What does this fold into?
Amino acid sequence: MEGIQEYPFDYGRYIEERLREIPDLDERRFAKIALLEGLGKTIQCMEEKYGQLQRRIYEEFQLQGNRYETVMTIIERQYYDPTNGTLYPVDPQDLDDVKERKNGLMGTVFLKMGQEDSRRFREEETFSGIVCRMERRYPAVFRVRPAERYQKRVEELYQAFQDNQLPWSTVNTAYLDQFYDVFLADMEEDRKTGQREESRTLEVFGLEDCEIQFGDYSDFVCYGRIPLWNMEQTSFESTNFMMPCVDGMYYEHVFALDQRKETDGYLIQGNEDIVEIRHEKDRIVVKSPKDTFDNWKVFHMIQEIKMSLDYTEPLLSNRKRDSFFRRMAEDSRVSLMTWADLSRRILEMDVREYLDVVGYEISEPFDRNFERDETSGMNWFIPETLFPMEGRRVLLLKFQAKKPEHYLNDSMVRFVISQLQMEIGEYRCVGVLV
It folds into this structure.
């Protein structure tokens, strides 16, 4: 309602303040009766009628509830609550006590630093440290690399949206982009014994057995963190009910939604046995040449989130704030390229606690020396459209951080720009903090 309400004005208080300016008490008493009980009640009645009219107009533009919004946070692994039922690990293997470590993988760390510092951290070739074995300490060399398994999970989710023919909204991967895998690159003891790197995969030891000297980054490297999101991946099997298609070559299997939460979304993950996925009222129809099946995957996207004890980090989502103008725009399906409408679309995103949009510039493709960003956007897996980015004019959006020096500010700008780039095809969108 904030988008259509006027600035609240207290007529009763205003009249009381003006009455104090009347020095004669009899006149003040008479004016109070006339104004407060007469004009005041008239104003109150008119406000109520305008309020009713306002609500009627507002409710005519009903937004269809989005059941496919993503929410993400990070926690310390030891505090994971399996009874929560709304937040699950992005990578289920993060909960395994013993992981299969390949190519010298020791574990994963979370870096609480901004984009530029993170870039320098990635470019560091090696970090020295110690590996502890059998109460002995061996000098070693470590290297870091972005944890790609989390990005692959987002790609799987995108592909599920494509399989279900549903519109994609940018997932805020600000947390996922800060996770780094740590590898054992070299160890003095291995050189002495002639042990090969691949033989380390048989040994069960990880970061808890290491002391790594991260130097200037030491205060910002966090151990034992895992990302959670509102995604539960389950499986389902064929039931006795199935409907043969008219051509007799395929079967239609039904995934019923009537007994499930109306606010939640469900995505059938495509596979080689699925020909078509069709969403209908209270059910999802899956077309397949097989009359029976098992272990087909389903993404369950939970929209009512609960926080458990020691879940202290903020939730990051791709939800949009409800407003009257958003309802009008989505109902009319018209997108205005004005500064007011562009600002509205930015501030509707879940970045209001971090950013303010303060201005913009438009330039020709080669008027300004904007090279392609060193860090990719949050939709890196979506192929470029027919018209290349280099030939488009540049829409430079300027942001101001509400929390200066916060490590997520740069990522929030990337999230906004990534989503706007999907909506605005005629410009190449660029964002900067000022």
Remarks:
- Residues 173 and 378 are 7 Å apart (CA to CA).
- The chain has eight helices and 20 strands.
- Helices lie at 11-19, 25-60, 115-123, 148-163, 188-193, 324-332, 339-347, 409-423.
- Confidence is low (pLDDT under 50) at residues 1-5, 196-202.
